[in-house]
Design brief:
Layout lengths: L1 E5 L7 E4 L9 E11 L1 H8 L12 E2 L3 E9 L11 E4 L19 E5 L3 E3 L6 H21 L7 E5 L3 H12 L3 E5 L6 H7 L3 E3 L10 E6 L5 H9 E9 L11 H7 L2 E4 L5 H13 L6 E5 L3 H9 L6 E5 L2
Parallel strand pairs: 9-10, 9-12, 10-11, 12-13, 13-14, 15-16
Antiparallel strand pairs: 1-2, 1-4, 3-5, 3-7, 3-16, 5-6, 6-8
Helix pairs in contact: 2-3, 2-7
Length: about 325
């Protein structure tokens, strides 16, 4: 079968023939129906710092995977051939697209414990992006941020993660304000249900938000979030636009601010996201491409030409 594989930093993806996987004990084979593309895929291709996560090369890329179980290994009792599933990339030490061949191919060999059932009515494209973009967004808002009905919530950044997180917060009953520098996506914020959109987090100073979720993570965004929260408010940092920030610790102390990091999520976050996707309450903006268009899709991500999330359909 064909697979788009990473062979080295600053090298284009290689289209290679690879053997079809055979499940061992505790494993299943998933016929891939959709695989999401992510800005981290660009990072892998462009930055040598990712090589420590890639112990064996070449490796098939793609860490957002959804499909249908087609073969079952010894000892697997919780899944059956024909089950529609997504693959959680964080529930075991093996991560698709990094230390295990991933989703830019026809079949994926998965530990049975990594699978998440897809509810009826959920399409494969949304199931794929739900395994990472959905999980990460939901985890930051609900699991780490603890957002509840009636909360005043500010969302910084309305990209592929921020749009999901903002809508989840709205659906859960929060009053959501969005800070987004790109005015082209302001109409999307209104469609999601945000009560207000501003260009900069600085405009929200003194507004006493219960929770601020920073999906941008550009240092100054996190620092200014301290000005926006109430006493005992929470800041959740998700984005890694830059990897450091200078924060006024006086205000952190006086406000008793909680500054929390949020990294990925767990299987339950995916399952919760799937229910929201299947109900139609959360409907992320997606662009669908074909298997053959994956390299060009990554180039589009590199050039910043993608709104929402990019998903490759495999059939």
């Amino acid at each position: 079968m064909r697979a788009w594989q990473f062979t080295g930093t600053h090298q284009p993806l290689a289209l290679n023939e690879v053997p079809e996987p055979v499940p061992g004990a505790g494993e299943v084979v998933v016929d891939i129906k959709a695989a999401g593309l992510c800005h981290s895929d660009v990072g892998v291709l462009d930055d040598e710092g990712w090589l420590s996560m890639l112990p064996v090369l070449p490796v098939t890329m793609g860490h957002e995977v959804a499909g249908v179980v087609s073969a079952i290994g010894e000892g697997v009792t919780e899944w059956s051939v024909g089950d529609r599933v997504g693959v959680c990339p964080t529930s075991s030490p093996v991560t698709p697209g990094y230390n295990r061949d991933g989703g830019f191919s026809a079949k994926y060999l998965a530990p049975a414990g990594d699978l998440v059932a897809m509810p009826d009515g959920l399409g494969f494209e949304l199931a794929a992006l739900g395994t990472d973009a959905g999980m990460t967004s939901y985890h930051a808002v609900m699991t780490i941020g603890g957002v509840k009905a009636g909360d005043k919530v500010a969302i910084i950044g309305l990209g592929g993660l921020g749009q999901v997180g903002a809508r989840v917060a709205v659906v859960k009953g929060a009053e959501v304000t969005v800070a987004e520098i790109n005015e082209d996506v302001w109409p999307l914020a209104k469609e999601i249900g945000a009560v207000e959109v501003v260009k900069s987090i600085e405009e929200l100073a003194g507004r006493d938000f219960d929770v601020v979720i920073d999906y941008a993570g550009f240092g100054s965004t996190t620092a200014r979030a301290v000005d926006a929260i109430r006493r005992d408010g929470t800041i959740v940092v998700v984005g890694m636009g830059v990897l450091e920030a200078t924060i006024n610790t006086r205000d952190v102390i006086l406000k008793q601010a909680r500054i929390l990091g949020s990294n990925g999520g767990v299987k339950q976050d995916i399952a919760d996201c799937y229910e929201l996707f299947a109900s139609g309450e959360v409907a992320p903006v997606t662009t669908t491409i074909t298997f053959d268009e994956i390299p060009e899709g990554i180039e589009r991500l590199r050039r910043g030409e993608v709104s929402g999330r990019l998903v490759a359909r495999m059939d």
